[in-house]
Design a protein that fits this description.
Length: about 475
């Protein structure tokens, strides 16, 4: 197997829990790792300086995307070596993955999910907004010393010295919750019911719920890790759950679709995106079950109708009855995007370089906001990793293509390349979406559409779309 190395200059102030290796040490580590595993080193890339001038990762990515490259593995010391920015670490892991390469981490042959490792890193190192620098420092200091902050997790109490201390009875319940979840494979609801039936209640004497059980299953404190305001302290207090068990619980949690998003009937792909052409109100998705007696044999037939109608009608009856069958309206929106792309692309052909730059930068901002939302969704548990990948891959492809061409803009032929990239990505996104429309969950269709259009306006029989940047 071919192996690629990527080395990055360590930041001057590295987080305490991180191994800091010089460029040369990283390189040596890479070659000895390849020797050990019988990999063939075929290329190495390096970012000796940080910041916008750093081209190493870009070159690595370009190399990885070559269509004729064989089975290739990218070797890293740790996921955190991909960027000094925690969010970018996740982005780059996903980005490398979607080019089809694998990622090997030196010193971690556990074979865990790389995106999960990157998300872990991001959750622990992202900067917390909304707090002043001084407040952050003080919290950080307290956290460093292992003092309990905020709500004390069930299973612990704050000891006299300010540290977390295990409460044996409660710790036993925590262990049982993990065992029920992982060994017996019970769902959150069933775990809550089991405990409630046994008259085992929360610290405040309340009944367990899906929410309180879920909080127990995702609190890192139980694995002995103290995580607060971006500071992770390992081994600051006694663990109740072994780290590996905790990780396993996170894996199961992330691979189980959450209740709110598993409904196939539930969502509507155009929710919040289509407006009524007559009154400007929002169109809303409605599904109705109908059943009727069959004449032929006297039995009953049943069918569900899905459609969109003007929302104004519901409240104030200001607008008359405008409805579209959901399939028709969705197909019409996709067709309208296709039709709107042609003139938009033509317009790009005539846009001067400076304007084009602004246009592309605007688009990159949209994509970046969108990606952040995907990450947040994953952290909150509304997306699982499968979904994060499905949503991010096309987005990251587009982002990378635009960024690359933007960097080339001032070179000869740069503007033509950027125009071509712009043209290509818009078309690709629409094709991608059209092809996957029937099989994609409604919510994913909606998110993907939101990357293409700002809004669609429906009048009886006609449809207009407003493309997004
Ligand atoms: Zn209306």
């Amino acid at each position: 197997m071919d192996a690629i190395g990527y080395f990055r200059q360590p930041p001057a102030t590295a987080p305490q829990d991180e191994q800091v290796l010089t460029l040369q040490e990283q390189e040596e580590q890479f070659f000895s790792f390849c020797r050990e595993h019988g990999y063939q080193p075929v290329a190495t890339f390096m970012d000796p300086i940080a910041g916008p001038g750093a081209r190493g990762f870009r070159q690595l990515r370009e190399y990885a995307s070559q269509p004729d490259r064989g089975f290739t593995i990218v070797v890293l010391s740790a996921v955190s070596h991909l960027s000094s920015d925690a969010r970018e670490v996740v982005e780059r892991v996903l980005d490398l993955e979607q080019t089809g390469v694998q990622i090997a981490l030196i010193g971690d042959d556990g074979g865990g999910d790389r995106v999960e490792a990157a998300l872990d890193y991001w959750r622990e190192h992202r900067t917390q907004s909304g707090l002043s620098a001084r407040a952050m420092d003080s919290l950080r200091n307290k956290a460093m010393r292992g003092f309990g902050l905020g709500k004390t997790p069930y299973g612990y109490r704050i000891a006299e010295n300010g540290r977390l201390e295990v409460v044996p009875d409660e710790a036993e319940v925590v262990r049982r919750i993990y065992a029920m979840y992982l060994e017996q494979g019970l769902g959150l609801r069933l775990i809550a019911r089991t405990l409630n039936d046994e008259n085992v209640f929360t610290r405040r004497g309340k009944r367990w719920s899906v929410v309180t059980i879920r909080d127990i299953l995702r609190n890192r404190a139980y694995a002995g890790t103290y995580l607060r305001f971006g500071v992770r302290i390992t081994g600051s207090h006694e663990a109740i759950i072994p780290t590996e068990t905790f990780r396993e619980a996170q894996r199961r949690r992330e691979s189980t679709p959450s209740v709110a998003h598993s409904g196939k009937e539930g969502g509507f792909a155009l929710s919040g995106l289509v407006y009524c052409g007559s009154c400007g109100g929002r169109m809303i998705g409605v599904s109705r079950k109908q059943s009727w007696a069959r004449k032929r044999d006297g039995g009953r037939s049943e069918a569900t109708y899905r459609y969109y109608r003007c929302g104004s009608r519901v409240n104030q009856s200001v607008c008359s009855y405008h409805t579209w069958r959901s399939d028709d309206l969705e197909r019409a929106v996709l067709a309208a995007i296709g039709a709107a792309l042609d003139p938009a692309i033509e317009q790009v052909q005539d846009t001067p370089a400076a304007e084009l730059r602004t246009l592309v930068q605007g688009r990159l901002k949209v994509l970046s906001t969108r990606f952040n939302r995907y990450l947040d969704g994953t952290t909150k548990g509304t997306h699982d990793l499968v979904r994060l990948r499905r949503l991010s891959y096309p987005l990251l492809r587009e982002q990378q293509r635009l960024r690359d061409r933007l960097l080339d803009l001032d070179a000869a032929g740069g503007i033509e390349a950027l125009r071509a990239a712009w043209w290509q990505q818009q078309r690709e996104r629409l094709q991608d979406l059209t092809a996957h429309w029937p099989t994609l969950p409604q919510e994913d269709c909606r998110l993907a559409l939101g990357d293409l259009i700002r809004r669609a306006t429906a009048t009886d029989g006609a449809l207009q779309v407003e493309l997004l940047g």
